[in-house]
């Protein structure tokens, strides 16, 4: 519960004289404390504490400020407390006297877990709100981009992954039938000895088969376990993970492989090279250069689909109405463009580099005319067809002309390289042709050119997060904790920008 904090002493008058003598008036932390209202965050954090139960909690604003300092200066939990012990600027920023004790570093871990993603996002959003109240953040345009975050994980081999999953499941099951589990442990050793001369694939397959047998036994026992038992939830989680391991083994080309048992949310992705981890996705206001929305997703996540989520996150938090969005070519997808531009939905003006169709010496799909009903297609030679089927991506109709019609057509050599055996020319007509046409037309305007000139601001902001504040590598494991890291990093970056905008630069000595 929250209560008085007698163990932390505020600065005395002597302390303040000492601070004034040692800390320059324009020191960054003094400016940050002056422009950021940290007390506004107290109410957001108080909801995570019981009003009248439990031991007295540590001062939450103090712990939040310690988080701020460690992300600003790229410090660990232990290092930020050690620095606060000797750094007078830290002491003043924290509101602590020279003789005041400091929290134990382990409290920062507990504090992050208690606040979680929800409260850290609320704190981030409230800082953006403070900038909006100063008239800094505008709603005319948002810049969106993403970069990669490398997971804190050692990538195991397939053998290690299967064997580790087998061992984890046996440990969970030991609480239900110890004798059976001990027998399985003996079998583990027998499999290891029997496979001494086998190939790597044979050794892996024997462990996979043993894991399948353990899962089958666990599934049978699960129905007899009381779901109110705390161990039941651990068994459910272990079984879900085990099924994922087997699914990846049986479907190696699905593209969503589990990377590690210790980091189950990270995935393999490609961003200037292959990596394992996450994507950091942000929105930036080009007028104030404030980060207005932050999200993370697995490395193989749908960055284009996340654009709408980011816009909704900001609009729900700030109760504003964003007018336009600029993104890279990854967003040139008809379904995503329709969702973003829908007048009944987000109603955004979208600026995105169009993907131009490949050059061809043959008739392009745009040269085939679709009637108003969308059911009849006419080719440049005047031939028509109503034969159609949904394309493999379910994003439009594939129209098929009769084989005989195309075989006898005088323009066939201008239409296709070779006549298929079973049918004539196949033409795909996208459901989102209007969205693609609008995006390509917009790319020819001066407004588009002006927006693309400022788009680099979001790239610089991502660079600031990953290069200067450690955002390139995940500090923690699992997706929610990585998101907390990036929210705190964005908060630190926004705080620095707020100080730049609201505090006049220091006047050098001898000037003025």
Label this structure with key terms.
single chain, 512 residues, alpha+beta, 4 domains, 6-stranded mixed beta sheet, flat, disordered C terminus
Helix and strand arrangement:
Elements: H1 13-22, H2 28-35, H3 40-46, H4 60-72, H5 77-86, H6 88-94, H7 106-133, E1 142-150, H8 158-173, H9 178-194, H10 200-222, H11 230-250, E2 267-270, E3 274-285, E4 290-298, H12 306-318, E5 324-326, H13 334-341, E6 349-351, E7 369-370, E8 377-378, E9 384-385, E10 388-390, E11 396-400, H14 403-407, H15 412-415, E12 426-430, H16 433-442, H17 446-454, H18 456-468, H19 479-502
Parallel strand pairs: 1-5, 5-6
Antiparallel strand pairs: 1-3, 2-3, 3-4, 7-8, 8-9, 10-11, 11-12
Please describe what this structure looks like.
The structure is a single chain. By secondary structure, the chain is of the alpha+beta class. It has four domains: 13-135, no CATH class; 142-149 and 278-353 and 443-487, Nucleotidyltransferase, domain 5 (2-Layer Sandwich); 158-250; 365-429, no CATH class. It has 19 helices and twelve strands. It has helices at 13-22, 28-35, 40-46, 60-72, 77-86, 88-94, 106-133, 158-173, 178-194, 200-222, 230-250, 306-318, 334-341, 403-407, 412-415, 433-442, 446-454, 456-468, 479-502, and strands at residues 142-150, 267-270, 274-285, 290-298, 324-326, 349-351, 369-370, 377-378, 384-385, 388-390, 396-400, 426-430. Strand 5, helix 13 and strand 6 (349-351) form a beta-alpha-beta unit.
